[in-house]
Design brief:
alpha/beta; Rossmann fold; 9 helices; 8 strands; about 15% strand; 3-oxoacyl-[acyl-carrier-protein] reductase (NADPH) activity; NAD(P)-bd_dom_sf; NADP; CBR1-like
C-alpha cells in the first residue's frame, strides 16, 4: 500500500495536494494541528471516493510530531510520500514591525517554516526509508530564492518580508542537504514553489492571486511522483527549475 502524508492539509494548497495525491496513492493522510479540521477534511476526501484518514500533529511541537510518527508506524509501518506544506507568513499582518528585522516575527515564522519540517523529517524519515521509492517534498517559495532577491529585474525583488523569505531559503538549504545525504538511497527530495495562490496565507491573496490551490497542487504532485531516473535536490515551480 502506497501512503502519502501532507502537513497543513485541512485547507488550501495542502488539501488540494492531498486530494491530488489520493489519485496516485492507496491512502492519503491529512495532517493538521486541529483535530476537528483534519477529520473534516479527511471525511470530505472519503465522501469523494478516496482512501483517507486524519492525523493530529502540530509541527511546532516536537512531542506532537514524534507521537504522530509513532501512530503512523503502528498503523501503516512505512511512508512513501511526505509533503512539508504547513507554513505561515505573520509578517503580512504585522502592521507595526519593531524594526526591519523583528525577532518575534523570526521566532514565530521559523518555528513553523523551518523547525517544523526539520522535526517532521527527523521523526518520519525512518518510515520513509522503508519505502521502495520515498519522496520528500518541501513547499518553498520563489521569494526565498537568493537569486531573485538580489536580481533587480526579478518581479519578487521588491518584496521585503525577511522572516518569511529567509525561512524559505533555509528550507531550500535543508532540501539540498537531505538530497546529498540520501543520495545512496531511493529517496528523492525536492523544493517546490506552488506560485502565488488564492489562500489565506496573506491578506488579499484570495482576491489578487492568479493561481487556485488545485493548480498549485500540480507541482507538488509532480515532485511527489518523481520517477527513479529523475533528479533529486532540485527546486521547481510549474514552469520548471527555479534558481536557488
Amino acid at each position: 500500500m502506497k501512503i502519502a502524508l501532507v502537513t497543513g492539509a485541512n485547507r488550501g494548497i495542502g488539501f488540494a495536494a492531498a486530494r491530488r495525491l489520493a489519485r496516485h496513492h492507496d491512502h492519503v493522510i491529512v495532517a493538521a494541528r486541529n483535530a476537528d479540521s483534519g477529520a473534516e477534511a479527511a471525511d470530505r476526501l472519503i465522501r469523494e471516493g478516496y482512501s483517507a484518514s486524519s492525523l493530529t500533529m502540530d509541527v511546532t511541537d516536537p512531542a506532537s510530531v514524534r507521537a504522530a510518527a509513532d501512530e503512523i508506524s503502528d498503523r501503516f509501518g512505512h511512508l512513501d510520500v511526505l509533503v512539508n506544506n504547513a507554513g505561515i507568513l505573520p509578517e503580512a499582518t504585522n502592521a507595526d514591525p519593531k524594526e526591519v528585522l523583528d525577532f518575534a516575527m523570526f521566532e514565530q515564522t521559523y518555528a513553523t517554516n523551518v523547525l517544523g519540517p526539520v522535526a517532521v523529517v527527523e521523526a518520519f524519515l525512518p518510515l520513509i526509508r522503508k519505502s521502495p521509492a520515498g519522496r520528500i517534498v518541501n513547499v518553498s517559495s520563489t521569494v526565498g530564492s537568493l537569486s531573485h532577491q538580489t536580481d533587480p529585474d526579478s518581479p519578487w525583488h521588491a518584496m521585503v518580508v525577511p522572516a518569511y523569505q529567509s525561512s524559505k531559503a533555509a528550507l531550500n538549504a535543508i532540501t539540498i542537504v537531505l538530497a546529498k545525504s540520501l543520495a545512496d538511497t531511493p529517496i528523492k527530495v525536492t523544493s517546490v514553489c506552488p506560485g502565488w495562490v488564492q489562500t489565506d496565507l496573506a491578506p488579499g491573496n484570495k482576491e489578487q492571486a492568479p493561481d487556485t490551490p488545485e493548480e498549485a497542487a500540480d507541482v507538488i504532485v509532480r515532485a511527489a511522483t518523481l520517477g527513479d531516473a529523475d533528479a533529486t535536490g532540485t527546486f521547481i515551480d510549474a514552469h520548471g527549475p527555479v534558481s536557488w
